[in-house]
């Protein structure tokens, strides 16, 4: 896929590392023409999530039909519980064609698939500081069952072991500082 007009930015990191908050702040504060790719998922919306804003929430049948039609740049079953997540290719192509820097907030497996297709994607791993801190954040969120928390912690351990595959790693102990760091990284790549 040609990315000559805009750029693709992949942001990964364990669930609970604070990626979503960081990305929201980045979209508001970074002077670059950023655009968030809204993923599709079969998981249910959380209380504060709106369809078409956080995700496109799809039924398993709708998701499968898009997958069969080849509409996903990548899609993965995340957390091994039958919840699918995927990046819609048209989100990326439209953004790139209009010169946007399109942010994909996706898991490590999805990131590896995207890098295969778009080798010049900018890759950033958001690190929660420590596993203890990550567990504290997941529990404080009060949105997941104990079972879901334990699954997320297992996946997190696995994801942390792959962080060296990202060009940039940013520790998120303070979201304002981490957002600023990501913004500086992106601005340093503006003329590449
Ligand atoms: P959550 O359910 O907490 O919103 O997200 C769970 C995980 O799914 C996160 O690690 C997130 O990065 C990942 N994810 C969200 N959208 C996508 C996507 O389109 N593709 C892939 N591969 N992972 C995604």
Q: Describe it for me?
A:
- This protein is α/β, with parallel strands linked by helices.
- It has one domain (7-186): P-loop containing nucleotide triphosphate hydrolases (Rossmann fold, 3-Layer(aba) Sandwich).
- The chain has seven helices and nine strands; from the N terminus they run βαβββαββαβαβααβα.
- The strands form two sheets. The protein has a five-stranded parallel β-sheet, sandwiched between helices. The protein has a four-stranded mixed β-sheet with strand order 4-3-6-5.
- α1 (19-29) packs across α7 and α5 runs antiparallel to α6 (146-160).
- The longest helix has 15 residues, at 146-160.
- The structure holds guanosine-5'-monophosphate.
Summary of the model, kept short:
By secondary structure, the protein is α/β, with parallel strands linked by helices. The protein has helices at about 20-30, 60-70, 90-95, 110-115, 130-140, 145-160, 175-190, and strands at about 5-10, 35, 40, 55, 70-80, 85-90, 100-105, 120-125, 170. It has one domain (about 5-185): Rossmann fold (3-Layer(aba) Sandwich).
């Amino acid at each position: 896929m040609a990315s000559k007009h805009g750029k693709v930015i992949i942001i990964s990191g364990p669930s609970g590392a604070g990626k979503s908050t960081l990305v929201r702040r980045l979209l508001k504060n970074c002077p670059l023409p950023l655009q968030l790719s809204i993923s599709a998922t079969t998981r249910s919306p959380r209380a504060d999530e709106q369809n078409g804003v956080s995700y496109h929430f799809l039924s398993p049948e709708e998701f499968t039909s898009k997958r069969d039609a080849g509409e996903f740049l990548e899609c993965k079953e995340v957390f091994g519980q039958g919840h699918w997540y995927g990046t819609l290719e048209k989100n990326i192509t439209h953004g790139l064609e209009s010169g946007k820097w399109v942010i994909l907030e996706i898991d490590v497996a999805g990131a590896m698939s995207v890098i295969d297709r778009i080798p010049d994607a900018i890759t950033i791993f958001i690190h929660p500081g420590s596993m203890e801190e990550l567990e504290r954040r997941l529990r404080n969120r009060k949105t997941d069952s104990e079972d879901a928390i334990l699954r997320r912690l297992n996946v997190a351990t696995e994801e942390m072991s792959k962080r060296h595959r990202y060009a940039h790693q940013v520790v998120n102990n303070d979201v304002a500082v981490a957002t600023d760091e990501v913004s500086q990284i992106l601005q340093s790549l503006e003329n590449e």
